[in-house]
């Protein structure tokens, strides 16, 4: 979706309230909240939504059990409270998950684990998820995949999330409330002129100048670069880049539970059911000093992750088993911790508000679980300069698009979708509701048979879904569709992906022909 030149002219005459730079979870969360309070918002993202850090997470909505070891009690409490809120407002893309924590005598004593889990159960106040409990691994099915030398374990609950879809749904809701969301659009330059920000942005159609009363630097790993190179503003705050890498292997245990394993280096690694047929294993914590856009998993990280789970699983996982990997850079606030794993996951909001000039807010750190609360805090910081943002917060209880599943919740919605479209397989109906919630009905429409959904690219992905993603969710490329919107990349073979590329090429050609005809 390229920018509309006519909007650029209007924007140059009438300033937006907020120009947000960055289409990750923090940027779209702020855009949604601000637009819902009546602010005019323009968000620009240099690539696709969630194309970097926000799609490279461990896919969890969690309080951060291990952060208790670093005395991050405030962060854990806030995250636990937010976990409950997000489970309620996005039950299609966020749902409960139980974690099995085997006790290893070589790492932490059992009393420490029990104490940590007790705090975890109670720090957030009243919770809807089950509280932790101890199990004997030789008597419980969760012990079946584990080596016999592990006798005891603790089970606790957290949430899992379709992370890139969380970003897209926030952007969709922001747009529905009036925000202008522009992907593949970068901030070229910005300076304060006559009390507002005057910014040059660029997309495939060229450059435009827009104005805004406030600027939010939510560029994630690029936050310092924006300040230094684009805005020429000095700050005492620094970001510390830490690479986190994951591997995906064919499913290596039965059941819907996840596992959390302690390593001799005191780091933890998760093994999580992923996309029904696979297991996601991660993550690492490696200092990163290179370009955040060029991050890749290293061979020694693959070996580390395999060795981590092999200390626990009966059946060994080898690098040859890996079917997919991904890596991302976490832009953590630099608190001078020597160990990358110990760097705080809390966030810092830095405000630069000279009298009579456009306000600037830069975001350092943060985690996906607390994005909604971070957005509220950001607007509280901006409100003295932008009174339009001073209204009451509203995002804690308002469902994200598709999240209004109705009576019976997720399972009932799947049943209703199959009744509406009996030609859908149980797996396809489950996936559509899991991805889109009640918006799945918009994709299926009035189709009476599977062929009505158009070309089938494999893995349940059809032309009807692709058209929806392009029209409603800013998808442009096959990568956008396969890895960030539908996550069908692991399920579609090379021939299916090639058919998708040809379909997208044909769509682009049709758009070009239509524009040429209109111009003629």
Automatic annotation (TrEMBL):
GO molecular function per UniProt: glycerol-3-phosphate dehydrogenase (quinone) activity
Domain FAD dependent oxidoreductase span(s) in chain numbering: 17-372
Highest taxon above the source species: Bacteria
Alphabetical list of SUPFAM superfamilies matching this protein: FAD-linked reductases, C-terminal domain (SSF54373), FAD/NAD(P)-binding domain (SSF51905)
Stored InterPro entries: DAO_C, DAO_C_sf, FAD-dep_OxRdtase, FAD/NAD-bd_sf, G3P_DH_FAD-dep
Cofactor: FAD
Protein name (record): Glycerol-3-phosphate dehydrogenase
Gene this protein is translated from: glpD
């Amino acid at each position: 979706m390229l920018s509309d030149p006519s909007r650029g002219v209007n924007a140059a005459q009438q300033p937006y309230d907020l120009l947000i730079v960055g289409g990750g979870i923090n940027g779209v969360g702020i855009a949604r909240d601000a637009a819902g309070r009546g602010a005019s918002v323009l968000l620009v993202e240099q690539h696709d939504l969630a194309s970097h850090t926000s799609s490279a997470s461990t896919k969890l909505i969690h309080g951060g059990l291990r952060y208790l070891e670093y005395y991050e009690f405030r962060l854990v409490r806030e995250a636990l409270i937010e976990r409950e809120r997000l489970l309620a407002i996005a039950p299609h893309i966020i749902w409960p998950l139980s974690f099995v924590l085997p006790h290893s005598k070589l790492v932490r004593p059992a009393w420490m684990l029990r104490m940590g889990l007790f705090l975890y159960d109670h720090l957030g106040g009243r919770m809807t998820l089950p509280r932790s409990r101890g199990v004997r691994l030789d008597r419980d099915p969760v012990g079946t995949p584990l080596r016999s030398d592990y006798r005891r374990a603790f089970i606790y609950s957290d949430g899992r999330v379709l992370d890139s879809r969380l970003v897209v749904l926030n952007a969709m809701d922001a747009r529905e409330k009036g925000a202008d969301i522009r992907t593949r659009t970068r901030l070229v330059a910005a300076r304060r002129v006559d009390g507002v920000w005057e910014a040059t942005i660029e997309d495939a159609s060229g450059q435009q100048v827009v104005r805004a009363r406030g600027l939010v630097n939510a560029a994630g790993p690029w936050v310092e670069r924006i300040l230094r190179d684009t805005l020429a503003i000095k700050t005492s705050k620094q970001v510390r880049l830490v690479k986190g890498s994951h591997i995906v292997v064919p499913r290596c245990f039965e059941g819907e539970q996840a596992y959390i394993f302690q390593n001799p280096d005191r780091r933890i690694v998760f093994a999580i059911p992923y996309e029904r047929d696979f297991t996601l294993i991660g993550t690492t914590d490696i200092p990163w000093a290179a370009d955040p856009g060029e991050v890749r998993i290293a061979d020694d990280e693959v070996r580390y992750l395999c060795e981590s789970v092999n200390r626990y699983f009966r059946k060994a996982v080898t690098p040859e088993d890996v079917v997919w990997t991904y890596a991302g850079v976490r832009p953590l606030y630099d608190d001078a911790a020597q160990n990358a794993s110990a760097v705080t996951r809390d966030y810092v909001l830095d405000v630069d508000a000279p009298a009579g000039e456009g306000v600037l807010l830069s975001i350092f750190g943060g985690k996906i679980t607390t994005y909604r609360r971070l957005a509220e805090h950001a607007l509280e910081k901006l409100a003295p300069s932008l009174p339009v943002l001073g209204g009451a917060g509203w995002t804690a209880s308002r469902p994200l698009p598709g999240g209004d599943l109705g009576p019976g919740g997720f399972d009932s919605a799947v049943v209703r979708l199959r009744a509406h479209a009996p030609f859908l397989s149980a797996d396809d109906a489950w996936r559509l509701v899991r991805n889109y919630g009640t918006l799945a009905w918009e994709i299926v429409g009035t189709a009476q048979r599977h062929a009505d959904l158009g070309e089938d690219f494999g893995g349940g992905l059809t032309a009807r879904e692709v058209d929806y993603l392009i029209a409603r969710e800013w998808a442009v490329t096959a990568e956008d569709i396969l890895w960030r919107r539908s996550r069908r990349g692991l399920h579609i073979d090379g021939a299916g992906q090639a058919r998708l590329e040809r379909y997208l090429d044909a769509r682009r050609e049709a758009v070009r022909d239509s524009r040429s005809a209109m111009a003629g």
